[in-house]
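quick one, 296 residues, struct below
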Amino acid sequence: MPLSYAALGTRACIEVRGTDAAAFLHGQLSHAVLGLDATDAPLAGWADARGRIRALFRVLTLPQRWLLVTPRDGADALVKKLRMFVLRSKVEVALADDVAVAALLGDASPLLARHGAAVETAPNRMVCRDELCFVRVGERYWQALGAPAALQPLAASLAGATEAAAALAEIELGIPEIAAQTTERFVAQMLNLDELGAISFDKGCYPGQEIIARVHNLGGVKRRARRYAIQAVPPAPGTPVLAKGEQAVGEVVCSAAAARGCELLAVVDHAAAESALTCNGAPLRGLELPFDVPRD
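---
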């Protein structure tokens, strides 16, 4: 498959600046921020006091600021909420209107070589060259970030792809998206953030840390996100997943159109995971993830 390009208009970047920015983010996010280097681009959750995830960010450290990549829908509200926790810290939080996000689907190695950039072999790693940053999300899925003018030559030189294709690539990797309907509904492990490397269990305190650590040490979540296919239009986040007898056993986290119907991630009870499930009246077919879903 040739490398293709999709502008991600549904993604925004929140910038965090100031001498206390790293310490501020370290004290708010589930992934350790202090100690990250310029090639790290991990996922991190921002939880409430109950350990339920408000937002999921991809965290990038740049020379003058930190960037948090997140869905554009709700980003303004996240900026306002993050500012509430700044207190007396020397930190500024705002939308980074000068940064756009795009998806690269396929083998990006030749492209990066043309930019004089080494190809990262592991996910959650980043390389920056020529006013662009390339984040390896998966084996054949990258994100490119930069000013719209810097991204334009990429868009002009590559085959076009859709945002749905990028969303599908994230679902295949098990990466959830937190929408307005699902914010503060799921403890971090329900979204498999531990399997996605989005939680540092040996860092200091952050909102929800006690609950997330307790689940890690003692178990306790009775449901987790799993991947499914369905021959229907993509269901909205929060749509119930039903078992026999129309009993609700889970709910949709995110979905994306596929070649036939769509694929989705849904948080489903462990006890019902192997049973016949439906969503919006259509049967669900279980699909593999790149990791085994734990049964806590």
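The first strand starts at residue 4 and ends at 7.
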